[in-house]
Write a structure and sequence with these properties.
CATH architecture of the largest domain: Alpha-Beta Complex
Number of domains: 2
CATH class of the largest domain: Alpha Beta
Order of helices and strands: EEEHEEEHEEEHHEHEHEHEHEHEHEHEH
CATH superfamily of the largest domain: Medium-chain alcohol dehydrogenases, catalytic domain
Strand content: 25-35%
CATH topology of the largest domain: Quinone Oxidoreductase, Chain A, domain 1
Helix content: 10-25%
Largest sheet: 7 strands, mixed
Shape: globular
Radius of gyration: 20 Å
Distance between the termini: 19 Å
Length: 350
């Protein structure tokens, strides 16, 4: 194998810096890919800085990966050299538990293997992610990228796209449904695009009046300033589904009150501290549901990519060279990006 060049964090305090490693030798079902683009997810920052106290250093982040196949193992049937492929948050799972057998590998009862900072099920080696020039991944966890889409704009679909598509799909968002999206960032802008493409009536909730016009550009039919009690009250008991993407702890009750009878609010943001407990009356008296959702399985992620190909959907991105990643992390903390950073990995090769 040729050397793989990457950027890695060596400890929780250090900035990401150049790093070199060897990808594993191809196994029978492996796909080797030249990485072209890698999205920058907030999870990358959390793991690099050990915010969740689980990081194994050195860590090479990156789980929104688009690349081109350069070699395949002897038993690979899905891909051939030259194919444009993607890798998301998972690179393996036990494949035998009930969740895996249902195509829900993200809920693997024996623990899925994360694209980075995971442990390879065969060798025990720690996995390295897409801030690197190449990856080797089992074909079962490799995805086909629609040829009509900009590959740089596809990269964030592998996390931000599936994280929002999965709950929208699970709760049957479509024509005739009124859907609320809470928060307009990397996840929120994808949720607006996807819900609109599914045929729903889409309302974006934000605390920032400056985001109103952009939300409408992305596809929202209405925008509600959630700090305005009058605007919120006007939508009481009217939503079929609300997708709440805000990771900061906040009061869920004002949004629960907007759900109609049998409506559902699903949380996907991971707060540092728990949200205040919602009032039980807001759930019981309208048979409302408060739910959660976590990324998506491989089959559903492929379904999402195909849907985006059919509707011409990609992320709004800012393309950066690898050497700007540390500045990008600081800007991401300030929400200073519309709406997702994507690394041009060719800058790393140079």
């Amino acid at each position: 194998m040729t050397p793989t060049y990457a950027y890695a964090a060596s400890d929780a305090q250090s900035k990401l810096s150049p790093f070199e490693f060897q990808c594993r030798e191809l196994r029978a079902n492996d796909v080797q890919m030249e990485v072209l683009f890698c999205g920058v997810c907030h999870t990358d920052l959390h793991v690099a800085r050990n915010d969740w106290k689980r990081t194994v250093y050195p860590v090479v982040p990156g789980h929104e990966v688009v690349g081109r196949v350069t070699a395949v193992g002897s038993d690979v049937t899905k891909y051939q050299i030259g194919d444009l492929v993607g890798v998301g948050c998972l690179v393996d799972s036990c494949r035998t538990c009930p969740s895996c057998e249902e195509g829900l590998e993200q809920y693997c009862e024996n623990g899925y293997v994360a694209t980075y900072n995971g442990k390879d099920r065969q060798s025990g080696a720690i996995t390295y992610g897409g801030y690197s020039t190449q990856l080797v991944v089992d074909e079962a966890f490799t995805l086909s990228v629609p040829k009509n889409l900009d590959p740089a704009g596809v990269a964030p679909l592998l996390c931000a796209g599936i994280t929002t598509y999965s709950p929208l799909h699970q709760w049957a968002v479509g024509p005739g449904k009124k859907v609320g999206i809470v928060g307009l960032g990397g996840l929120g802008h994808m949720a607006v695009k996807l819900a609109r493409a599914m045929g729903a009536y889409v309302v974006l909730f934000t605390t920032s009046p400056s985001k109103v016009e952009d939300a409408k550009r992305l596809g929202a039919h209405e925008v509600v300033i959630s700090k305005n009690p009058g605007e919120m009250e006007a939508h009481t008991n009217s939503f079929d589904f609300i997708l709440n993407l805000v990771a900061a702890p906040h009061d869920l009750n004002p949004f629960l009150q907007l759900l109609r009878r049998d409506g559902t609010m699903t949380l996907v943001g991971l707060p540092e501290h728990n949200h205040p407990s919602p009032q039980v009356f807001n759930l019981i008296l309208k048979r409302r549901r408060l739910a959660g959702s976590f990324i998506g399985g491989i089959a559903e992620t492929q379904e999402m990519l195909d849907f985006c190909g059919e509707h011409g959907i990609t992320a709004d991105i800012e393309l950066i060279p690898m050497e700007q990643i540390n500045d990008a992390y600081e800007r991401m903390l300030k929400s200073d990006v519309k709406y997702r950073f994507v690394i041009d990995i060719d800058s790393l090769r140079k």
